[in-house]
Amino acid sequence: MSSEAVPVLDLSRQYAALGAEIQAAVADVCSAGRFVLGQEVRAFEQAVERDYRITGAIGCASGTDALWLAMAALGIGPGDAVITTPFSFFATASSILRVGATPVFADIDPVSMNLSASSVAEVLREHTGDRIRAILPVHLYGQCADWDALSALAAEHGLTLVEDAAQAFGASWRGVYAGALGDTAAFSFYPTKNLSAWGDAGMTTARDAAVAERATALRAHGMRRRYYHDEVGWNSRLDTVQAAVLLIKLKHIAHWNQQRARVAARYTDLLTAAGITGSVRDGAVLLPTADPRGTHVWHQYVIRTLRRDDLRAHLAERKIGSEIYYPLCLHQQDALEHLGYKTGQFPESEKAAATVLALPIYPELREDEQDRVVEAIASFFR
Ligand SMILES: *Cc1c(COP(=O)(O)O)cnc(C)c1O
């Protein structure tokens, strides 16, 4: 058996395949000298709109900014509350605070680990305080949240839906792509995401033309006419270099997502054949599943086990990378203590935080490497 390391992510393989083509595109941007919001930015936005049937796509500086823009353009602000999941990256909640609104948490579904519509319904029944304006589900690990249930709730209560699609470029629900499901949505092109830039980049999408137009203005200091400011926005312009990188990678993302799905299916087959799978409570490995109503893009392949930390150390000893997304829920973060939540309030989220482990998954992951990952996991449980 080879003892070469299997990193949790290896971007050098994608670079080896596309580096020369991308460098030529970057050189064009440099010689044209239009480094911010150049023609590649609009070309990238239009390509996303066309390929993913999204009405308004607005490139911006990061996924975090995209979330802020997605809410600011809807007019969500002070005095408003937004319901979201406590089992996500910090930016999901901090962007709500950044628009001046209050995050209100609801627990996750134990199977998908996405925001649970029944928990949201409970919050809507019991919530007092700031007026709830929106629901902000996260398409965690590349799988769309239950859009049937969430959109029914939003319609019933007159709420807007904002998607955190940072991990789900190309995912879909009943044939509609992430980014076209909600009233607005946010993508991240951070280097570890399934569609990634050569640095920070993001995108807001908006169904309504007026909201898209407002997001476009807010991205550049609320400026519609040069140096005339209609409202206070921010600088969240997208670099032309990043758009040039993304334009090239966009041609490959559908294929890459298929390759991720192939890797995921193979993990499921191999781990099942190893005879170590079952329920978390019985000390076995719980495998991730894909809801048949959607298309999962497998941004992450996340298993669950009560012996997570020991398993992770066992893998590390064998030079196999893994990662924990996320070890501490948002309602338990020191920075959000002022929201007044307590440990124990979101049991499914807390159980997920204690048991999840993401395995190496990327389009270029080789079968022999995957075999080593599975063999190492199996040897831990035997
Ligand atoms: C990555 C991520 C973000 C933030 O994106 P950045 O581009 O890093 O700012 C927001 N939400 C989720 C769920 C993410 O995974």
TrEMBL record:
Family from the record: Belongs to the DegT/DnrJ/EryC1 family.
Record keywords: Aminotransferase, Pyridoxal phosphate, Transferase
Alphabetical list of Pfam families matching this protein: DegT_DnrJ_EryC1
Source organism, top-level taxon: Bacteria
SUPFAM superfamilies documented for this protein: PLP-dependent transferases
GO molecular function terms noted in the UniProt entry: transaminase activity
Protein's name according to its UniProt entry: DegT/DnrJ/EryC1/StrS family aminotransferase
CDD domains, alphabetized: AHBA_syn (cd00616)
Source organism per UniProt: Terriglobus aquaticus
